[in-house]
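User: what does the whole thing look like in 3D?
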Amino acid sequence: MRAISRIAVSVFRESVRDRVPYNLVLFAVLLIASSFLLGQLTAGQDVKIIKDLGLAATAVFGLFIAIFIGIGLVSKEVERRSIYALLAKPISRPELVLGKYAGLVLTLAVNVAVMTIALYVVLAYMTWTTPPALQTAWDAPGVDPALLKAVFLIFVELMLITGLALFFSTFSTPMLSAALTFGLYIVGHFNADLRNFEQVVESRSAAWLARGLYHILPDLSAFDVKTQVVHGLAVPGGYLALTTGYGLLYIAALLIAATFIFSRRDFK
Amino acid sequence: MPPAIQIEELTKDYAIGFWRKRPYRALDRLSLAIEAGEVFGFLGPNGAGKTTTLKLLMQLIFPTSGRAEILGHPVGHVATRRQIGYLPENPYFYDYLTAEELLDYFAQLFGYAAADRRTRVSRLLDKVGIGAERRLQLRKFSKGMVQRVGIAQALINDPAVIFLDEPMSGLDPLGRRDVRRLILELRDQGRTVFFSSHILADAEALCSRVGVVAGGRLAAAGRLSDMLAFEIRGWELVIANASPESLARLAPIARKTTDISHGRYSVELSLDHPPEQVLADLSAMGASVVSLNPIRDTLEDFFVRRVAEAGSARSVEEAAHARD
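Assistant: Here's the predicted 3D structure for the full assembly of 592 residues, as structure tokens:
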């Protein structure tokens, strides 16, 4: 456990030194600039759009961090041979994989937390500057705690994507890992369509294949509750728990597979 | 007490080729036992199997067959690594860290407390000659400085067994001298040092025993002094005041005679002619003997010959295999 936490902290430190936090500045600038522009252009819809934009940007910025750092977590160590000295220390290969994963999750957690705070600050400012009469037209309060539900599921989704990137990087090149992870991200958001595929095709085998793929591929659309939250619709606690459980199970499977492959790999 | 390092029939095959994979044997049934407290030199040309052996011992790669133990435990036993240090060949470390941070990170993996880590890091960086630069990021370091940091990180845990893959690589003469001194210091502290090198002078200066690996096979192993003594090729005799008749006495038995100057000659005698009788005859003829030295094979010669032998043995075996 000690080794995992030490490795995790080193991944976090690397991401800070690799100037990953710069994206936070970009995020803040994007939000503040948008809120200013929207305030000039729209009436009554600006808070909704900012929420949409803030949550979408959190997801996209997180996605880039998860993929581009995730694919390098292990492969960069192997490619640059820094893994040689590291594995001679009293740590096991599974500890190395889990430490790397935990480090990137920590980086993502800090990023998502800072972006969420920035979003709330902008929303608080907009609420403060909007007359109460206009606020009554909003679907949900400006500073809405329900946004945290969407942020939380975005974070679980990012953890899953990090798991995918790490899994691919244990056996393929960084470029291929990035392509595969991004491909799965896209497919994962349309995965729900595969579930209903049998209603639109005649062939039983095609329906079976679609059903099989639905179960194997991650269903990422389940983590997207942005629209509900922004429009003030309820997201039940049970749904949150179930989706989180699904995400964690999927992550566990990915990490088990990644450590299994990595533990048997030759570093030539 | 078991040997510090025990290697039995260790073999590693790689599959090479893109479409039609074929096996390539990088290491062939290597067996060695290295006792505690030894400085063992693992010698061989590039591609001989030295790094493959070290990677197998560090379990960076897995053997096709055979086994190895370090301090009585199979390689890969994580707890044993608390007593092991390893310097990889041409090491690379995280270049966003400073030398201090890197060593501190590795020390953390051993679970040392902060105060202990500070002492260890500072002492080791002093020892390998990294001064104020220790607070610079490693991306600003030269190859030789990274090598020094690599040696320091291999010693962060006061290991009982230290594996050094080409430790002199990238070092200037001063650095090489420092590393030699360090290895001897480790030996004096009773630690076992296993180092690979193709620089034979380093082995001659440091090793109690050596193993010569060529073409993936162990071509020879033993005490350096025994190997060299065994390989005496003749005698080099230097005489002064040599008269024509003393030169005539030497002519039939000399492999080579060199006129140094003013009646001083260097004569190379073969092993077939014991020097005692020749010395007596020359003395009687008025020549004075300046020096008599055995002509030994240098490790270089030994190395080249064994490599050639291993190569030809392998070709013979491969030909036989092809016939079968």
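In plain terms: The longest helix of chain A spans residues 93-129. Chain A has one domain: 2-263.
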